[in-house]
Amino acid sequence: QVQLVESGGGLVQPGGSLRLSCAASGFTFSSYWMNWVRQAPGKGLEWVSAIVSGGGVTYYADSVKGRFTISRDNAKNTLYLQMNSLKPEDTAVYYCAKGSMDYWGKGTLVTVSS
After folding, report:
1. Residues of the chain whose pLDDT is less than 50?
2. Full 3-state SS string of 29-91
3. Which helix (H) or strand (E) holds 24?
4. CB neighbours of residue 14 within 10 Å
């Protein structure tokens, strides 16, 4: 069955960096777009970024453009999100989601605070 497992979250100071990973299994990872979506405490879901199946094209929400970088390693069935210049408003649970968002991981918490 499809499994998506996020990791790499934690507590970081404003201006710091984190790299999230999402290990995928149960489907042909290299055939699907992948997404990162986040949910801040008490708020709704916010789409963050997407990457096409081959990795050559990426998309970002305006709120993270220029600070976050999405990438993937199809040989390792893994999706990444490099987050730099983190702000307190980036605090959220970050989820990876397959393709049309038919499958989601359980998320990893990122807390940006001094």
Report:
1. none
2. HHHCCEEEEEECCCCCEEEEEEECCCCCCEEECCCCCCCEEEEEECCCCEEEEEECCCCHHHC
3. strand 18-25
4. 13
Instruction: For residues 107 and 94, give the distance between their C-alpha atoms in angstroms, rounded to a whole number.
Output: 5
| Residues 81-108 as b or e (16 or more Cβ within 10 Å = b) | bebeebeeebbbbbbbbbeebebbbebb
Tell me which residue of 2, 3, 92 sits closest to 81, measured CA to CA.
92
The model's pLDDT over 72-88, given as tens digits with 9 standing for 90+, comes to 999 999 999 999 999 99
Name, in order, each residue with C-beta under 8 angstroms of 44's C-beta and a sequence gap of 6 or more: none
Identity of residue 10: G
- Quick one: 24 exposed, middle or buried, by C-beta within 10 A (0-12, 13-18, 19+)? buried
